[in-house]
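User: Structure tokens for this complex, please. No commentary.
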Amino acid sequence: MPQHTPLHATHVAAGARMVDFAGWDMPVNYGSQIEEHHAVRRDAGMFDVSHMLALDLDGVDAKAFLRGLIANDVAKLVEPGKALYSCMLNADGGVIDDLIVYYLSDTSYRIVVNAGTADKDVAWMQERLAATGNRATLTVRRDLAMIAVQGPNARAKTWAAIPGSEAASSSLKPFQAAACGEFFIARTGYTGEDGFELTLPNELAASIWAALAAAGVAPCGLGARDTLRLEAGMALYGNDMDETVSPLDAGLAWTVDFKDPSRDFFGKAALVAKGALRQVLGLVLEDKGVLRSHQKVFTAQGEGETTSGSFSPSLEKSIAVARLPLGVAPGDSVEVDIRGKRLKARVVKASFVRNGQGLI
Amino acid sequence: MTTPTDLRYTTSHEWIRTEADGTLTIGVTDHAQEALGDVVFLELPEAGRAVTAGEAVAVIESVKAASDIYAPVAGEIIANNPDAVDAPETVNADAYAAWLFKIKPANPADVSALLDAAGYEAAIA
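Assistant:
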């Protein structure tokens, strides 16, 4: 029996096509996925991301605990509400999950983790709390819904829809959040556009969704969310990395902080020992067809593999991110095995569209 | 979702129309296009190719996924639809107008073994 978010009935009533995603019955689209994609690039769209899990970590050792738990360093967070993206690693340096940590104070953090890994993440964090003896309490917040409002007009339309939200959030910089009554408003997202991720009590989700729709924010499904994040070059857990892949091999070296030599985060020794063996770059298909995940890539330096691929609605070309041998560089010409045929692709940086503009 | 009663169907979601000259025009059903989502690419068989019943002869790719399209009966491909290749979204707009390819069947009687509209609707129910 799949789980339902507080907006499930709203999606069904709107005629959304529902699919199972990580054990949750979620909207993949409400009609045309491509139109939803364009709504976010050109105006404003919203996604129910309540299947993701919010966690609160509170206690005198909260900061020390996170410094040991995740590969990025929360010590760099000093402004209240500031967000940090990081991987949480296993002993081999593989990625247990990627997550966002919001700094509230040195003794209080909000963490958001993926739906499919949520149970595993909580169990792992509890295990590490016990093992380290750090004094902090992890609270699972399934009482909270999450709505991502994304696009060039997302902030203005959110302000129009939610009284009081403008005063609370107009001064937020990218990757910063603030509390606003029962709402937590973060200027973050997973689309490459400006916007907010709103966390709010479950019982308010349907009325806020309706208010946003009335303000002209288009409901969007997980299909558009995937093409948007792919164009933005943002990694998807399970596709682009998992427990067998190091962040250094998944294009996520920028999220691993080695600066403080005295900080020993879980998985660090394995990362240091192995180093980077692969790199992540983008591909643009030059022949006709559509790139998909897990297609073989042939380069002058050896074989690689696409980890996510699709048709890019913004560029009207097929694009992919690929894990490739070191030495391959943007501008190289490679071949991809698509259904038994070798088709030509061009190597680019793994970021295709940002703020409505094509980068390739 | 619609299922025209003057067509035949397969459980793999092709529709088949028998033309006056006995040739068959083939596309994918409305149910199929709805399940696939936005169609962005079609790879269709060339005229002159001999095909067997159930052979994968074409590929339809939506934003979400790639799917094979199968020859409903044995025969020879006699045409494909370049308009559909140029504008794959027409499959979403009207799945029964956006035909994909035509077959001259090896045995015209094979068509009567395919599903009728009621049979197809029962198969996808």
